[in-house]
Amino acid sequence: MYQARLRALDVSLIENAHYVKWVRYYLDFEAKYQPSGSAADVADAFIEKLSSKGQSAGLCQQARKAVHLYLEVSQPTPPVSAMAEPKSLVVASPETQTRSVAPPGSVPVAPTAPGRGGWIGLERAMAGEIKLRNYSPKTLSTYLMWVRRFGDYMGHLPVDAITDESAKDFLTDLAVKGHVVASTQNQAFNALLFLFRHILKRDYELGDRVVRAKVSKYIPTVLTRLEVDAVLKKLKYPHNLIVSMLYGCGLRLSECLNLRTSDLDFEENLVIVHDGKGKKDRSVPMPKLLKLELRQQVARVAKQLERDLETPDFGGVFMPESLGKRRAQSEAKALQWQWVFPAKTLTLVPDEGLYRRYHSYSQQLSQAIRTAVRRAKIAKRVSAHTFRHSFASHLLAANVDLRTIQELLGHSDIKTTMIYTHTVQSRTKKEMISPLDL
Asked: What pTM does this model have?
């Protein structure tokens, strides 16, 4: 019954495995400690135990949702109405498994609770519309998260009772009581705009009626060239090569990890980025210093593919959803489609009964960067995106045209690129002078 419930809610394969894991832990906890009280009390005690053992808030939320669903299907009436429904879902790192299940391919829908029936349908319809428009999986999960938070704020009233006034109150509450930054409020605004226009088919003209969150002046963290070199020296393969690509090409982390071997054009010295942010393609120069290392990396990938082909039930790499199923099946084992930075282990796809290769995981890289920064004794908050910021700032400091930097970064608006003017000291002349005298 539990698996049937997870399938009915479109819980992805990777989350399915974690849900089952939390339920097993919960049953072990119940058998070992035999706590008294209702099922909701036992579940709360279990979550408190997880928290006391250092589990993150995100994992505790995931465990709470998994147990909530289990109790819902195992009891004649939902006994856990008192359990607070998590507002977001954080999935445990798949690399913690030696042979993990498939990477996220679908977005889970929150479990049914009293008054939530109409909202579940609303979320499903919204997910369908977003997928139809080929938005990124991150946009999909973010928009659904805001719809769930909006539903929580509304107390899951009937969908017909939703008005633009309700949206105005929710967005205002985010700014006044939630103290969110302007970008977060804008994100929620866009999610509700999509909901009203494409799902509810209603007007969404809030105008100036929403109290706007205060816009803070954002200046990105930038490393000096010496600091970049210091971090690279503390990183091991393949993380040093990945970070070199982030800094040398100005790539977003997702763009770098999603590179295929065919995206490296050694003849034209270009790195081709497909389906970047906003589903846009672009090309950036391949750093000369990395050309030999990248050739060696492609050779490593080719050898790994040879070993994978000898593995029983190997189905190739995970292919883009935009490809037809027949083409994806026939080309998944071709070298041109292999990841430049593949994961260390194969991933089991239960529905296919095959093992596939996924790209390297961002969590591993993030941890490696934090460790390297600490060992390099750099007193800055550094993430993978910091190297993209440094790429832009260092080009600007070298007097590279701002429009050129905009194209290299893949920014739609020059205003986004202009934030880097705050990270570089101005070299313009301050004194008044005639151009005839220059």
From this structure: 0.65
